[in-house]
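User: Fold this; tokens only.

Assistant: Input:
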Amino acid sequence: MAYLGDGSDAPSGEIELEDDEIADVLRALVQSDDRVQCLDLPHRRLWIKRQGVKVLPRFVSFQGLVAALLRVPHLRPSPQLAPDAMQAREIARMHIFAAAGFPVPPIVFQSKTAMVMADVGPTLAERLNTLRTSDPVGHDALLVQAADGLGRVHAAGLSHGRPHVRDFFLSDDEVGFMDFEEDPASVMPLEMAQARDVFLYFLIVASRAIRPDETCPAALGAWSRHATDATQRELRSLTTLASRILPLIRLIGRVHMGSDLRRFIMATEFLMKAPLDRVASPNTAKAGQDG
């Protein structure tokens, strides 16, 4: 289990910085204002994350536009808070995920608007980039494994908010999670937030899979084994809404087919064809599987 704290009461065996490392961390905190900063020390790598004025990622802005103009509540972004409130929300969510048994980056120091985290190794995005040419089968298997991990998060009554392979990592072959700035369950019912998680994750699966005809159904099946009936109903609802605006998205794409639009189209087209009323889940009634 990852230890979360400011480092002052770290239990035995957890990360404990040497005096010179503490000095290096404090120097980095003062000398830079980069939002995310890698700090390579002689014996370890740390990451500094600062909360501050943030330019929303393109797809988050796209989500907000779609949610507002086309009345798709599932894609409503979480409220943007003051830096100290953003940090408090993210750290609180890290505690919740850790308490539920999911690996998260250990925090070795925190202030009101900055946290210093231990390195957790390559993200899934980095692993996928390596596997794409060296092990295509392993590449797609990792996408399916991440879908299973997301399903386990949902089975625990949680949602991630912005599930992306750059925010996932492996810890003892178990999928871990980081970057908890988005909290969709604060602005929508949990099952809607979880359905949004799945839809956003399939933006990645549908566009990255080497064998999408095999990998997309396998990933959906891996997630759905943990899904509740309510979340699967919300996923069907979200897919229906996305399918209705798909012609408009394609029309926009004829003018400028950016990567966000392309992923939206690919994910929607897959989920439209997927048997969302018959996905294999121990939480789904037999009648639903046979319907």
